[in-house]
Amino acid sequence: MVKVITYGTYDLLHRGHIRLLERAKALGDYLIVGVTADDFDKTRGKINVQQSLMERVEAVKATGIADEVIIEEYEGQKIDDIRRYGVDIFTVGSDWVGKFDYLREYCEVIYLPRTEGISSSELRQSRRAVSLGLVGDADFLNKIEQESRFVNGIHVAGICTRSLKSLSAEIQGLDFVTENYEELLERVDAVYIRSQPEEHYKQVKLALERGKHVLCEAPTALSESQCRELQALAAEKKLVLMDAIKTAYATAYARMLLLLKGGKIGQIVSVDATCTSLRDASAQEPAEAGRHWDGVYEWGTTALLPVLQLLGPDYRSKNCAVRWLDAEKQHDSFLKADFVYPHAVASIKAGTGVKSEGELVISGTRGYVYVPAPWWKTDYFEIRYEDPNQNRRYFYQLDGEGIRYELVAFAKAVETGRQSYAVDPTCSAAICRFMEDFCAGRDLIEI
Ligand code: C2G
Known about the structure:
alpha/beta, Rossmann fold, Dihydrodipicolinate Reductase, domain 2, 6-stranded parallel sheet, 14 helices, globular, binds [cytidine-5'-phosphate] glycerylphosphoric acid ester
């Protein structure tokens, strides 16, 4: 019996895929099809896959052409599979010519002509191309524009800013550039907002009222009730309102949450997160209008993320020590907040005027998680136990600091209308509540 194997992503299964599978099958008697798992695919830069692994596996099975469907989970797996299944022929489309010659040591390698005129990328593009308008003045917008190029189906169409000159050449060259927010809204399907947090509520609200989807750097508002109001408005209008916190979209961070929810370190008793970045001497001045965020927004939000996602929004008490940057007490340079929950505690340290080790430690009754600095760009973490032999290390590639995955999640939410994001509305509202307390001086002690 001649065994044939082929691999692919098979996103939005189309005629080109089916023709390839038919010809692969005809090369032998038994066809094994390897479907690439999402994460493995991310490492190859294919992050814009539309369908879940299960959907893609089901679609391949439904063709009835494959005798066996397997999942390709790691690099180098092809050699393992060829040996394990006793494969005679490896085949793949001609777009891969030469790439798999190294497998000739193990079996015959055949490149089949690719079907012209159809591809998953084209299908994805024709399915939806969200035209996105950028809003704000921060350099961070450059990163968003750059990362959007890796995401199929999102097209940065314009920007509303007062700081065009200090932004990238690519942004300056966008089709539509304006200082008038309403004008931008008329031109796009969705906005990404990174303006001053004080402006968020009004801008998000206007976008939703105009029927536009919103991706907004957290906090979306500076009070819990305003945040809830925006959430209700988005729901009523069937629009996506998603918090942008890139860490939440880092694969390693998301996996860590899942492992912890599964009880890997027992009951979680303490979460301690530190996020700081020292700005240069000129930053000791109050934030330049529009360009920098105060530390509480810039870092407080990210530091709160693991606390709220692991322990929830219902802490019993909180106190926050703050060091001000200016005599008017308008801008903070450092803060430390402590939370007491019924069965756990948490603390965050955040700021742009003090430097510390940017690590995350989550302590449990059986062991603890250690995420080394800078933990907010998580690609690696360890689960440690009393017996070091039990320790486990985890690594997941992080591309584009998570922004790329965040944009993919946003595009997917817009397309499917399903609001399943990494930062849920409860967490989002709890972040806004923290900011509300901070701005009102509630539970605040000066140092
Ligand atoms: N294909 C084709 N004609 C097309 C499109 C795709 O013959 N118009 C073939 C590809 O060459 C590949 C298979 O269909 O053999 C699956 O295509 P993709 O889902 O795009 O998968 P790809 O990323 O090419 O995966 O490591 C090798 C990869 O797993 C191959």
